[in-house]
Design goal:
Layout lengths: L1 H10 L11 E2 L4 H6 L4 E2 L3 E6 L5 H15 L6 E6 L4 H4 L4 H6 L7 E4 L4 H11 L5 E9 L7 H14 L2 E7 L10 E7 L16 E9 L5 E8 L4 E4 L37
Parallel strand pairs: 3-7, 3-8, 4-5, 4-6, 6-7
Antiparallel strand pairs: 1-2, 8-9, 9-10, 10-11
């Protein structure tokens, strides 16, 4: 089995790139410098939410990237969702996408019956040169989405110029063919000067866990849906407790225990 997988990977060799890759600039000096000018448009990238409750923030980052991509001549997106991810994540809300700066009419949503069909749909979509991007939303670390499958998606992206994004919910780090892997965590929203009474602008902590040249980093990032631009978010600091600090109790823990992850009964295979 290992020899067969190795032979398959050899057949799926990327080969040399012709010319310089087109890049999607985030507009932030730190991440853009680490990425050599931005995300490669004709490549595979992964956005990861370690816990189910973080899928909203991860989806928000993907929506922000798509809003920037769709400003170009190829403005359509294929969004494929593994059915195992739906119980926790739910369906995309058109109004929410519009408020995030992404035209819901630019999306074609695919809800296949199983993960195998989802991989097929994403693979076919990545060949379509009329698309700006393909999003594959999966749950956990399914065996079907292995190094061979991700290498195939990477080759499709390289050949067609379509960005392919893996949106991984409740998933751990794993080796694959993605050029970059991002961990996304929600942060408190800073106030929006144009609407002080509102809930503020979306704010995330982005952690670059993997890149092709081995560089990494972490940034607090705010997304402005009206301008469709990223800005550096406020520095997060722990607030000091007012009044004297009480001694730790001797008969019980001095802080609440970590909350367990809420999961559904279905498991990705």
């Amino acid at each position: 089995m290992e020899m067969h997988a190795a032979a398959t990977l050899d057949r799926l060799s990327l080969g040399p790139r012709k010319g310089r890759a087109a890049r999607l600039r985030l507009g932030l000096p730190g991440p853009d410098a680490v990425l050599g000018g931005g995300l490669e448009r004709d490549g595979l990238h992964e956005v990861r939410a370690p816990l189910a409750r973080g899928i909203g923030a991860a989806t928000g980052l993907v929506a922000a990237l798509l809003a920037q991509l769709c400003r170009g001549p190829r403005g359509r997106v294929l969004w494929v969702t593994d059915p195992a991810a739906l119980p926790d994540a739910g369906l995309l809300c058109p109004d929410g996408l519009a408020q995030y700066g992404l035209d819901p009419g630019a999306l074609t949503l695919v809800h296949p019956v199983d993960l195998k069909s989802a991989l097929w749909a994403a693979d076919e979509g990545a060949r379509c040169t009329d698309l700006a991007a393909v999003v594959l939303h999966v749950k956990g670390n399914p065996k079907l989405l292995d190094r061979v499958a991700t290498r195939r998606l990477m080759i499709r992206a390289r050949d067609s110029g379509v960005m392919v994004l893996i949106l991984r919910q409740s998933g751990a780090e794993e080796a694959n063919a993605a050029l970059t892997r991002w961990r996304v965590e929600p942060l408190p929203s800073p106030p929006d000067a144009s609407f002080p009474e509102g809930i503020g602008l979306p704010c995330h902590r982005l952690v670059l866990e993997r890149s092709r040249d081995g560089r990494s980093g972490a940034w607090s990032v705010t997304w402005n849906p009206k301008r469709k631009t990223f800005t550096h978010g406020p520095r997060q600091t722990e607030q000091e407790v007012s009044g004297p600090r009480l001694p730790a109790p001797a008969h019980r823990p001095d802080r609440p225990g970590a909350l367990g992850q809420v999961v559904d009964l279905r498991r990705a295979t």
